[in-house]
Predict the structure.
Amino acid sequence: MDKDVVIFGGGAAGLWLLDELTRCSIDAVLLEANALGTGQTVAAQGIIHGGLKYTLQGLLTKSAASIREMPIIWRDCLDGRSEPDLSGVRRRSDECFLWRTDSLSSRLGMLGAQFGLRVSPQSVTSDDRPELLRGCPGTVARLPEQVISTVSLIEMLATRHRERMLQIDPQQLEFECRAAGDVNSIRLHRDDGQSLELRPQYVVFTAGAGNSALRRSVQLNQEAMQRRPLHMVMLRGSLPDFQGHCVDGAKTRVTITSDVDSAGRTVWQVGGQIAEEGVAWDDFTQLANARKELMSVLPGIDLSSVEWSTYRVDRAEAIMPGGKRPETVQIRREGNCITAWPTKLALVPQLVAEIATELVEHVSNVLTSTSQVEALPHDWPRPSVALPPWETAERWRSDSEIAISSARVSQPTLVPKAA
Ligand SMILES: Cc1cc2nc3c(=O)[nH]c(=O)nc-3n(C[C@H](O)[C@H](O)[C@H](O)COP(=O)(O)OP(=O)(O)OC[C@H]3O[C@@H](n4cnc5c(N)ncnc54)[C@H](O)[C@@H]3O)c2cc1C
């Protein structure tokens, strides 16, 4: 079967690209090895960053410059004013709080505006603070960064394109290449004996951490990907709905986002520096440190009735000197293969716009009517949507279990590093 474009991987990047190419009358199919969004997208905190956290050192970094237009693009899509229409995606919040824990007069309010960011923080008076931040001695600000449910984003895009997606077994995949990175055909096989041959003009790898193995399958043997691991913390139970960053110094000490689990409990995901530095620790030590850290950044918080868990996940990105975070989207072009990492969820629209512009220019015979599309077999299984980490965590620990251990952590465990 001839196809204009075959996309591997249905996280935020692959699904948004499928949507965009379809709207551009390109005949694209998406192949998914697991459940859609497995890996990073369903594990993400869902914040549509506007660049502020990349200006905390007092400089307009390349990262901040590349991301600053994104909140406007997302807002238009989430409001249904531009394509893709994401008005059905569940928003967790239209803003985040930003706070410091020291009592120094803060530059928070000036950052952002100074660098021309489209979302910049507005100071919040003591009376207007959320209950949770009442006891914080430092400055509190509101930041109009939206927070979305990433599962809902995946569900929405997947529902729209069910007929253009196939579940695959990566062990039963055969690539036939004319040269390294120049794919002639892809053969898919299934245990029940079904098989399908796809002959693409272009192949796009948006498989996150799966990109590395896919590249080797098409003879692109030089490693192009790095992983930066995180050890994220989760709390569930009697907690307020809250989204915010504690930004002492140039570092984000913790980032908290909330959702509601299938049993109706509030769940907090806690990331930031704590998740980066906790990679070396076992889950129990990570929780003990996280408890101490949350008590320190949110004085007076009552955690006595919550349960705790952690999850580990790698950020998959293009390889950078010294393993640093790429400053913007990363796209590699070799033969008829494109390998892409958005670096951030917030940057997915930019990644997709760049790839789609290129493909629209280069794909020959762009369709003039949908009747020209050869339909994929209807009886071939379609991928489902991955569950968020709080629905799959195997072990939750009571607060009393963590509190005993946390009390033994006598020194502050997180010392903000110089950037
Ligand atoms: C804990 C965490 C929190 C984050 N929070 C934020 C945030 O708040 N804001 C933000 O902007 N960014 C955030 N990010 C970054 C963001 O999540 C990622 O940049 C983005 O989700 C990457 O999307 P993706 O589609 O490229 O990859 P992924 O989401 O990893 O999706 C890859 C897809 O490819 C599939 N796949 C894998 N191998 C194969 C194969 N061989 N064949 C076919 N399919 C395959 C996977 O099953 C999956 O569906 C966070 C990341 C992490 C890890």
Observations:
- The domain at 2-41+153-224+319-372 is CATH 3.50.50.60 (FAD/NAD(P)-binding domain).
